[in-house]
Amino acid sequence: MKEDKKGGEDKGSSTKEEIRTLREKLMAQQMLIREKGLPIIVLVEGWAAAGKGTLISEMISELDPRFYNVVSPAILPNREERYPFLYPYACAIPENGKIMFYDSGWMEAAVRKYLHRDITKEQYKDRIRSANEFERQLRDGGYIILKLFLDIGREEQRDRIALLRSDRETEWRVSEDDIWQHSEYDLFRSTYEEFMEKTGKTVEWHVLNGEKKKASVRDALKLLVDAADKALAEGRYCGKPFKENFPLLKMPRLSEVDLSLCIDEEEYSRELKRLQSRLAELHNIIYRKKIPVILCYEGWDAAGKGGNIRRIARPLDPRGFDVMPIASPEPHELARQYLWRFWTRLPRSGHICIFDRTWYGRVMVERLEGFCSEDDWKRAYNEMNEFERQLTDWGAVVIKFWIHIDPDTQLQRFTDRQNTPEKQWKLTEEDWRNREKWSEYEEAIDEMLRKTSTENAPWYIIESNDKKYARIKTLKIVTEALEKACSEHM
Amino acid sequence: MKEDKKGGEDKGSSTKEEIRTLREKLMAQQMLIREKGLPIIVLVEGWAAAGKGTLISEMISELDPRFYNVVSPAILPNREERYPFLYPYACAIPENGKIMFYDSGWMEAAVRKYLHRDITKEQYKDRIRSANEFERQLRDGGYIILKLFLDIGREEQRDRIALLRSDRETEWRVSEDDIWQHSEYDLFRSTYEEFMEKTGKTVEWHVLNGEKKKASVRDALKLLVDAADKALAEGRYCGKPFKENFPLLKMPRLSEVDLSLCIDEEEYSRELKRLQSRLAELHNIIYRKKIPVILCYEGWDAAGKGGNIRRIARPLDPRGFDVMPIASPEPHELARQYLWRFWTRLPRSGHICIFDRTWYGRVMVERLEGFCSEDDWKRAYNEMNEFERQLTDWGAVVIKFWIHIDPDTQLQRFTDRQNTPEKQWKLTEEDWRNREKWSEYEEAIDEMLRKTSTENAPWYIIESNDKKYARIKTLKIVTEALEKACSEHM
């Protein structure tokens, strides 16, 4: 491990002076960081007993408490197993203008689980890939990320662990896991090094010498102050779109879809009953096998999303599913990376979550209404593909539906809503305005379907001029996907 | 258990017809409930295998998914033990205009824990009292609460459990706990009855016959439709304030406080060091003994809250505490009962949470700026006392500080902030406006201190014209309180 050389040895009083100066600088930066709404992530990783907590304490000591937060795996409920790998870290990202300190994070979660053999080599590689994606997405979304690794040698760790264990007041701080880490010091060292090598390209790592406490505090503060200075000078970063080679499924254009498809009443009743009853059985198995299921609904206004969702929800045990209606983001959601409000709404494993509208708003309404920059929505195709792959890595079934109708059918349904008092609330001014932009939307949707239908998270176009036909088709797709998942998941 | 007689026997097709009519009525009510922003809680309690899930399924089957949610202890992470009794239920309350179905709730949590002997008779009584307080507070805040108990006889339960266990697909649905409940059927029955008797005054219970599925669905729907009708006709309820006999501590008026108190530099440095080092030790013990600690800061603008909080936070392990800055509520917070945003911010046991401003905004800024009705803020004294008692029931140390200065000192600090570029961000127009209302605020604060300083959650007035004096006094109070808690908590 090559340490960052910041400025000589631990010379006591002069280091103390430098720390004071840096703290003052950081205090002065607070106001500007807040004003400019820059979000900062400080990830502090390192050995057990390396002093991560102390380092964070020293870094925050003069900060306004409204300005930062500290999060640590110990604080987060131990539910990672029921959620995707990155879940606790993604849920904790800071809002604009704030600093979040992670007292160990995704590096430790990947390395430790791997060395514990809780995950396979393959899964470990996936975690490394996910970590890179996560950091890049945040950086491209304007987050400043500082990654620190607090290093101590094997003898130093041995002495510190012994010291902690010798005192009744501190012995509980040394866990079984820490002792195990010490016994496998070399294995850990090479794995940490490999992890840093493989995740150091997008956002670099800084190795600090944890054996020299003051110097490491000074170095960490200097890195933070410099990173903030740079961001304040250059302004908020916005990543450029780039092409990733996701294997994409071929999708038809919306104009090619046959909307005359329909079903007769008798077949509808029979199939509805059959499929719902099968879905109820599958829900049981899903629950028992702890398979997470994410169903995504997008579609034209008045296409029949609500009724379609109700037919899926009807046979499900209400304890095991949730419908998440997605409206415009609230202020606290706008103040964070755009996927945050979806991360925080993910179901536990074994549960079904139905998203009524989704993250794809980014490349539809947000694109067309100018709620984000062109780079933002162009980057989003790839980011959403990555996000969904992280979900399927975790074992989730992810299915996306585009509920499709033609403009005449929409007009007819709008008019019907307008003339039926109980349905008027479903129709808003915005629906009429969106309707006027039909062709722009169609173009955006075609692009979305083309760029984000992946094998692990495919799009299905559901012909919904005949709502009953649409419901049966959706039910079939869902039951088939769950059959498959249940049979693969032993 | 006396069942609600709603309308004769389970007559098959006619009951089916009634259910259809009621569902249509509920669908029509949806829009109005949403428009008027009425929040509805449907609590479904009852025996294991009584069919609670199915009942909820039947109730929601025609509802728009944007309109309701279902929550159940199985869905909530199993963290009740690290949080107050009511925490999972309070965090899940619906926002205005929505229905939340609880698939078992605070009744089951109280009764089962008690019969399991996880809690004492005394704690069980506290839970009954808390449940009553919780329901009353929500009702007074405009929530519609419908409490259902789904009843089945001993033989029926035996048969249903046997049936579930006979099928490989459903046997996992019967837990050890369910079998134990069945073996203690009579004990459970009398305890459920007692619980309902003791919690039926503010919000009544409805016992439904779970052996007659259709009739119970019809009855539940009828109760919901009637409750919604009533609320739609009468408008949102707002509870009247009433006097509770909380044992209150005598507090001086602010005008009587001696603000000339100060400390010399030498004593300050010595005491700061001593107290912070003691606090660090205590934090270790707190963490180990899993004692939750809640420190509440209120005070005049520029009184020195921030610096005071920093001196408390300095010696704490950043993994074990959080500072929660409380700003004006966000839209999603305004859409729920006012204590919700504090419930959701409570620390886990063993952690320290420092609230930088608190729920007392209700009786200060919200009162004076007219952000809530007179009944609302007058009721709040009692509601906040109850809330804090629920926290101390859980074992929390709750301490409240009023950081006090006089108007001249404030003016001096405002002027200083105005003239110091790094401090300007701390001073807003609002601060000047609040200053003009000093005497109104003083009156409100005096009333607050008089009505909410309880033995379990006392207020301390901190003289802060000399900020250093204030810091030492606060540190002393905190360390003493923690010493006491650590010695009582074996």
Question: What would your notes on this structure say?
Answer:
The structure is a homodimer of 490-residue chains. With 490 residues, chain A is α/β, with parallel strands linked by helices. Chain A has 2 domains: 13-234, 3-Layer(aba) Sandwich (Rossmann fold), CATH 3.40.50; 254-488, P-loop containing nucleotide triphosphate hydrolases (Rossmann fold), CATH 3.40.50. Helices cover 51% and strands 12% of the residues of chain A. Chain A contains 19 helices and 10 strands. In chain A, the strands form 2 sheets. The first copy, chain A, has a 5-stranded parallel β-sheet with strand order 2-3-1-4-5, sandwiched between helices. In chain A, helix 4 (106-115) packs antiparallel against helix 5 (121-140). The longest helix of chain A is centred in the middle third of the chain and has 25 residues, at 265-289. The first copy, chain A, is globular. The interface between A and B is large, with 53 and 53 residues.
What's the structural blueprint in terms of helices and strands?
Two copies of one chain form a homodimer.
Chain A: H1 13-36, E1 40-46, H2 52-60, E2 68-71, H3 87-91, E3 99-103, H4 106-115, H5 121-140, E4 144-151, H6 154-165, H7 176-183, H8 185-198, E5 205-209, H9 213-234, H10 265-289, E6 293-299, H11 305-313, E7 321-325, H12 331-334, H13 340-343, E8 352-356, H14 365-368, H15 374-393, E9 397-404, H16 407-419, H17 429-436, H18 438-452, E10 459-463, H19 467-488
Parallel strand pairs in A: 1-3, 1-4, 2-3, 4-5, 6-8, 6-9, 7-8, 9-10
Helix pairs in contact in A: 1-9, 4-5, 4-8, 5-15, 10-19, 11-19
